[in-house]
Amino acid sequence: MELDPTRMCALLVGLPDVFIVAVDAGLTGPIRVHVETTATVAFCAGCGSRAWSKDRPVVELVDLACFGRPARLVWRKRRWRCPNSWCRVGSWTEDAPGIAPARLAMTDRAGRWVTAQVGRCARSVNEIAVELGCDWHTINDAVIAYGTALVDDPARIGEVTALGLDEVLFARLGRWRTQHWSTQLVDVRRGQLLDVVPGRNAAGPSAWLAERGEAWCDRVEWATLDLSGPYRRVFDTMTPTAIQVADPFHLVKLANQKLDEVRRRVQNETLGHRGHKNDPLYRSRRLLTKADERLDDRGRTKLMGLLEAGDPRGEVRMAWHAKEVVRGLYEHHDPDLALEFVTRLGADLQHDACPPEVRQLGRTIVRWRTQIAAWHQAHVSNGPTEAVNNLLKRVKRAAFGFTSFRNYRIRTLLYAGKPNWDLLATITPR
Ligand SMILES: [Zn+2]
Q: What is the reported pTM?
């Protein structure tokens, strides 16, 4: 079969309804393919008259790299004008979403490709910008435009029976590296990031849940949270029928924190200075926070010796014991006894003989006893949330620190929010 050269070019360029005016490939820089649409007539949207062709403004669009070189699609657009002076339409420029969406400086096919590269493969925007020979913003704008349509697909969220809230630091901004926090909403059954909202107070997650509606909220049976008041308020008001479960990881972390506080205070009171590498308590810090079953005999003997030397009133030992008992909570498997056991532990830790930090831990445990004990019925935790966080480390590494919450939200949801990637071929960019 013989093809005429123009037709061959059109096939290579692979766009419908355009013909190639010229291909301009110098020795360096991008390959430029000049195109026009095949449209020869147009009619006024106002009065229906046949339009006059006015002039041809040129737009240069970033396209997919071609033969190992960056490429540009140079589109000589048609500007049409209504012939009737009384018609309000005046003039307009042709658009062809199959070539490029109206507001982006990139072809449609390149926009979809960069969205998959950045969103699905977690490649950095910079890396893609180098590959396509354009600037960071051109790539980022496309990822946000197509990505927003993908993550806001209502089918992505579906029904959720176990919902977790978790605070996440998303950026440090400005001269003082101010911390900017966000809240992640995670389907802890499926390990899917549902959404991120700014801040770590009750307002963001509450508004998000209100948007889902009452019926959606009522289907949530389990609600996992760290030991934070704001998230408890979110669940109290928005999902009142859900059983709240305090995340084991956060309780054990709190017990370890208290142990650390006791160690540093005793260190200061006995030696009058902060931990130094030769101080027995300072040397014991890693052994103290290590799980007991992971200490071998040598480690245990060393730890006891160090405490003997640096902990005259036995306060660090008590805090260490408290931490181990808290960890032990999760080895019990009787849901009926859990609440009683947790309540008793909270009361015991408030005994007068305990260091003040441990008494504080006891009070927290009593305040959260229902949520802590609920884990023994549900066995749901924020574990999947941690898994999502680990997944997102890849995105954060690629992004070298986000500065805009919108970018952060879209990029993390594309990667960990399980969007339907089959839709990428058909969605309309926002
Ligand atoms: Zn008209």
A: 0.84
